[in-house]
């Protein structure tokens, strides 16, 4: 099964064009951070090319810009083409079938920082539970 799901940031505005039959085609690159640190203690980033068609391409072109965080769902494709100088090229990319814009927090002072959740032990959580009448549970 060939299913790819990635979440990352657009590296630039999408390149869009129309096909011969009028479908919208969009191409772009998404920067995806790895979830582990390298030997220098830094997170590395992969830059993954993608293409999409039709309504998905129109959605991304209309509602996203460089730097926006998106989630892409599709399949991993490898294709070859020969350019005008008769040089063969290989392209690995995600053929996107679904796309979502991922909301991010705005950088406005402390509001941009997620609020820390209070750490609660299982006993504390149990002690705080009450029934609908405000009475403590009998067990």
Mean of all residue-level pLDDT scores = 83
CA distance, first residue to last residue:
49 Å
- Work out the count of structural domains: 1
CATH H-tier superfamily = Nucleic acid-binding proteins
Briefly note the CATH topology name: OB fold (Dihydrolipoamide Acetyltransferase, E2P)
Gross geometry = globular
Going by CATH, the architecture would be: Beta Barrel
Account of the 3D structure:
- A hairpin with a 5-residue loop joins strand 5 and strand 6 (88-101).
- The longest helix is centred in the middle third of the chain and has 10 residues, at 54-63.
- The chain has helices at 54-63, 122-128; strands spanning 4-10, 15-18, 24-37, 43-53, 69-82, 88-101.
- The chain has one domain (4-103): OB fold (Dihydrolipoamide Acetyltransferase, E2P), CATH 2.40.50.140.
- 12% of the residues lie in helices and 46% in strands.
- A 5-stranded mixed β-barrel has the order 1-3-4-6-5.
- It has 2 helices and 6 strands.
- The N and C termini lie far apart (49 Å).
- By secondary structure, it is mainly β.
Summarize the structure.
With 139 residues, the chain is mainly beta.
List descriptors:
OB fold (Dihydrolipoamide Acetyltransferase, E2P); 5-stranded mixed beta barrel; 139 residues; single chain
Write the layout of secondary structure elements.
Elements: E1 4-10, E2 15-18, E3 24-37, E4 43-53, H1 54-63, E5 69-82, E6 88-101, H2 122-128
Parallel strand pairs: 4-6
Antiparallel strand pairs: 1-3, 1-5, 2-3, 3-4, 5-6
